Amino acid sequence: MRIALASDHAAIELKSQLREWLIEEGYEVADLGPDTADSVDYPDFGYKLASVVADGTAERGIALCGSGIGISISVNRNPLVRCALVSEPLSASLAREHNDANCIAIGARLTGLDMAKACVRAFLETDFAGGRHQRRVDKLSNPPSDSDRIEPLQ
Q: Where is this region: Disordered (predicted)?
């Protein structure tokens, strides 16, 4: 399985540690940057990660920033990608099992290396359950048309 990693400057160390660990675990890893701790804008790297997951270059993606929030928002701008912000293994597992998440986001300032590894392991080793969850996942990539939207409150 090919895993893409991307971060901002706040998560460069965690990204490096996860990259080495994933390689040791036998995964093919694409590190999308950044390569230094110089300040960068997380959306640039979130969009890059979403692109390679959406086009199939990578099967799964791991997005990292200080809190995990900003980069998860940018990754989720791509309608073919489902990125869940996780901080413990159960959320990572459920994101795969119920939501067919193809990316996870982790906050490097909030999650230690061992917990991040546990989240990544749960994410990579859990299969999508399909069944009743499939129609819901399909709706994530196909939002309702304007005629199906609820009118705003007056």
A: 134-154
- Single-letter amino acid code for the residue at 138: D
57 vs 30: CA distance, rounded Å:
9
Report d(CA 61, CA 150) in Å as an integer. Answer: 33
d(CA 77, CA 86): 18
pTM of the model: 0.91
**Residue 90 and residue 126 in contact, taking contact as beta carbons nearer than 8 Å:** no
Question: Active-site residues: which are they?
Answer: 65, 98
Question: How many C-alpha atoms does 96 have within 13 Å on its Cβ side?
Answer: 20
CA-based R_g, the chain, Å: 16
Q: Determine the Cα–Cα distance for residues 93 and 75; give it in Å rounded to an integer.
A: 19
pLDDT band per the 50, 70, 90 thresholds, residue 149: low
Helix 12-24 and helix 113-125, axial crossing angle in degrees, nearest 10: 50
Q: Where are the domains of the chain?
A: 2-138
